[in-house]
Write a structure and sequence with these properties.
This protein is an alpha+beta fold. The chain has 13 helices and 20 strands. It has a seven-stranded antiparallel β-sheet, with helices on both faces. The protein has a five-stranded antiparallel β-sheet with strand order 14-15-20-17-18, with helices on one face. The radius of gyration is 25 Å and the shape is globular. The two termini are about 45 Å apart.
Length: about 600
């Protein structure tokens, strides 16, 4: 067998960028031609280029938790359809979590690319569909006890053959979803996206030649692996443990725990989840592919930002996922709410590494953005509708920066749905959209603020489903940082008819005029709040992000509520008194986290002076 040619560095850099551009253009086509607001506005989709073996080669900057599972689902497709059963014009479809997918609303399309009758690549696009059938609209059946309650499960099959749609498959999908026009419209957008991606890859083959392009792909994968390993080698070898808790599973009120032990040995990173709770009857379980995606995201966040994302990034990363647990359930376990566990996986790994990589980790945030599905009949048209949306919360704080206010978490990375676009399509009217004062955990660096959104429903026969967490266990901070505010949900808040709503309520009936209040948890703080710059606290009070009472009680900062000015003398006295009380309560023994806090203070000082 002839040895592959070595691609020179200049050509390799060009190939890297055109491959990424191909994935990005695929994403642009999908977003611009989609029907649903969830794809067009929230950008809840992903796209990438894979090689003929199903390895990710290049990906668009979309949803991290999606992208790392596109490869596993494509590899499952290749097991069912070997190369000799794949022809030009074929397009494959699947959403099966137990074949490498994530959860049923995430439907993936993959299209082969041929050169001289040889299969050389795939283009893939995954989109979160607003409905996939099942017991609750939007695929949000939190109360489902098995995957069969959650919607239409599609194993790897062909959606198109030789360039033409397979109509019985289209009919099957049409018959199982509530808003077929929107779902099939988004599917057609995915088809257009992967077809465009395939054409672009064919153009690359024609321009650079088959051998050069495929050799360049191998070199890019190897280079990404080397860079990830170089970053991991900078971390001290050792074993680091942590745990995070989930409120409940949506069926029982029993909390659930994700436990992890991180082992760093040279350039290898192992995440061992032995000790994590058994799988639950509700839908919070995370299948293996989704859990690994969360681990890969956490590792990627520890490394340099400019490393090309491809299969090479994952080679140094190993996972131990005990079967039958929250992080690797046995079928037919329900798994629609898997993002709750995925976010806890990230939080647990970051917490485990907070003392050895304080400048890389982020404190916990909302745990899972509140997603909702509202269904019913539109009072003006009488037609059935599905309103699917998510509410942004915030980032946790970092070693030298406050958390980002009103922003989705890193693993999600979805965008905001403008309320005007929502109101035009659905019988809802938004009455509140604002930051939640004091929702960010206090710290040397404050956690990001959550957003509260209230809307009034005018739907006939309305049913509301919510998917969220962190209403019981607020996100905890690092190095003395305080927790963020817990999530909250209510119907008809601040009225005589106020009713608390569970964070995983399923198909709760609404009558026209009911008002739904939803706010995710705020991000946790980083570092001792008593060391925060008083001027930053004063600015937060001025901007309504922190109340004057919280400035005094949490930060030891006294603000004159009439003038809004900082009382320096009173602040100095209050902080000295608070520090003394703390010493008397806890003694003078120095804990590992306190030692780590000093390292964080030193790092912050270095940053302020132009250091790393």
């Amino acid at each position: 067998m002839a040895e592959s040619p070595r691609v020179d560095p200049i050509t390799l850099e060009v190939l890297k960028n055109v491959l990424i551009a191909t994935a990005e253009e695929t994403a642009a086509v999908l977003r611009r031609t989609a029907y649903s607001l969830n794809v067009r506005e929230r950008a809840d989709f992903s796209s990438c280029v894979c090689d003929a073996r199903g390895r990710i080669v290049a990906q668009a900057a979309r949803i991290p938790i999606h992208l790392n599972s596109i490869g596993p689902l494509l590899k499952s497709t290749l097991k069912r359809f070997p190369h000799d059963r794949i022809a030009p014009g074929d397009i494959f479809i699947s959403n099966d979590p137990y074949s490498g997918g994530q959860h049923l609303p995430d439907v993936q399309l993959s299209m082969p690319v041929f050169h001289n009758r040889e299969l050389v690549a795939f283009t893939a696009a995954l989109a979160h569909h607003v409905d996939i059938g099942g017991a609750a609209a939007g695929g949000l059946a939190n109360s489902g006890r098995e995957i069969f309650h959650e919607g239409l499960r599609i194993p790897p099959i062909k959606l198109y053959q030789a360039g033409k749609p397979i109509e019985p498959v289209m009919d099957m999908i049409r018959a199982n979803v509530r808003t077929a026009d929107v779902v099939l419209g988004d599917l057609r957008a995915q088809v257009a996206a992967v077809q465009l991606g395939a054409r672009r890859f064919e153009e690359l083959v024609a321009r650079y030649g088959r051998d050069t392009l495929l050799a360049g792909i191998e070199q890019l994968i190897d280079y990404s692996e080397r860079r990830i390993r170089r970053n991991l080698s900078a971390l001290p070898d050792g074993s680091y443990e942590a745990e995070e808790w989930i409120d409940d599973d949506g069926v029982t009120d029993e909390p659930a725990c994700v436990r992890a032990r991180v082992v760093i040995a040279g350039s290898d990173f192992t995440a061992d989840f032995t000790g994590t709770d058994r799988q639950r009857p509700g839908s919070v379980n995370s299948v293996a592919a989704a859990t690994r995606s969360a681990v890969y995201y956490a590792v990627r966040a520890l490394c340099d930002a400019d490393i090309m994302m491809n299969e090479g990034c994952y080679k140094p990363v190993h996972t131990v996922l005990p079967a039958g647990t929250l992080v690797n359930p046995l079928p037919p376990a329900a798994c629609n709410s898997r993002m709750i566990v995925c976010q806890r996986v990230v939080d647990t790994l970051f917490r485990a590494l907070r003392e050895v990589a304080p400048k890389r980790v982020v404190t916990p945030s909302y745990g899972c953005a509140p997603n909702l599905g509202l269904t019913g009949r539109h009072p003006d048209t009488g037609r059935y509708f599905v309103f699917f949306d998510g509410n942004h919360a915030s980032w946790g704080a970092r070693h030298n920066k406050d958390g980002i206010d009103g922003c989705t978490s890193g693993p999600s990375n979805s965008a905001n749905s403008p309320i005007e676009a929502i109101e035009v399509r659905h019988p809802v009217l938004f009455e509140r959209y604002e930051f939640v004062t004091d929702s960010g955990g206090a710290g040397r660096y404050r956690g990001g603020l959550a957003i509260a959104r209230d809307f009034r429903s005018e739907a006939d026969d309305g049913l509301l489903t919510v998917q969220c967490d962190r209403a019981r266990f607020a996100p905890g901070g690092y190095f003395g940082g305080l927790p963020g505010k817990a999530a909250e949900f209510a119907l008809n808040a601040e009225t005589s008819d106020e009713q608390a709503l569970h964070s995983k309520a399923t198909s709760h009936p609404l009558v026209p005029g009911d008002r739904f209040h939803w706010a995710a948890a705020g991000g946790a703080g980083f570092g001792d709040p008593l060391t925060r710059d008083p001027e930053l606290v004063r600015r937060d009070v001025r901007d309504g992000k922190v109340s004057a009472a919280a400035a005094r009680d949490c930060y030891g900062v006294v603000i004159n509520e009439t003038s809004g000015k900082l009382d320096h003398a009173a602040t100095t006295r209050l902080r000295k008194e608070a520090a003394g009380n703390r010493s008397r309560r806890h003694g003078t023994a120095d804990t590992g986290e306190q030692a780590g806090a000093r390292q964080v203070d030193d790092a912050a000082a270095s940053d302020a002076e132009g250091g790393a």
